[in-house]
Write a structure and sequence with these properties.
With 297 residues, this protein is an alpha/beta fold. It has two domains: 122 residues, no CATH class; 157 residues, 3-Layer(aba) Sandwich (Rossmann fold). Helix content is 33%, strand content 14%. It contains ten helices and ten strands. The strands form two sheets. A six-stranded parallel beta sheet has the order 7-6-5-8-9-10, sandwiched between helices. α1 packs across α10 and α9 crosses α10. The longest helix has 16 residues. The N and C termini lie far apart (41 Å).
Amino acid sequence: MIIMQLTGGLGNQMFQYACYLKLKSLGREVKFDDISGYQTGNARPIQLAVFDIIYPRADKTEIVEMRDASPSLRDRIRRKLKGRNLRQYIEKDYSFDPHIYELDDVYLIGYFQSDKYFSGIEDELRRTFVLREDLLTTDVKRLGSAIDQIRDSVSIHIRRGDYMSADGADIYRDICTDEYYDAAVNHILSRYPGAIFYLFTNDVTWGEYFANTHPELELNVMTGNTEYSGYLDMYLMSRCRHHIVANSSFSWWGAWMNADPDGCVIAPGPWLNSSTWCSDIHTSAMTLISPEGEVLN
């Protein structure tokens, strides 16, 4: 049996669930530990249920056994003398690691942020990642239908908030720069001159600043959805034909869930401030733009 640790926000949960489905298709028995990764006060909500997903959960006994975490005095003494019998495997560098397909009887930790992890089951995922109808408000349905009718609708995702904190600065900051977004917008307009833009962000003030500094655009700043209803933003992103994504798994999935073969997806390259981390997160269909505004492919 494999126990996967569920962690992170909705986008990360979707990558982990996609990897789970792939492992399951290979005949593995897989369960989730949805407790260990959500014990801190700032933990994100678990939201896979918005897609009507019910997943198998490992119980406490299974997790304790796999991680050799029994609190009994006897086991604590044994670990002190002989070390921990930790059956655990951690994904390396947030990049595609095919070795996980060879594993069994292991506690698996990682984000699995690459479409390579679910190669061959894309159709199943598209059928799975469909937002529950009862969560769609009348206004969201109306807006989604209106976006569907636009020939060249474009989602722009700007993520700030936690990305601007001290913890997130070194790894996330200065990738999705003003130059990145300006170059991305210009690239879209050069191909689709009449494009209409929908901006999604967790920093509405900055979103309004972006709108004010781009008066030439037909731009709609989307507001009203919180951390707990952000799945509605992802749904609306998926209704757009083209996408300018942030270095965020949230907008990665918003773009991926739109299956328009003629759509354009622009993404930041690199994804993180590291030459190796997340090296496989870009899909073959993405146009990559550097922090300096240079088109890289």
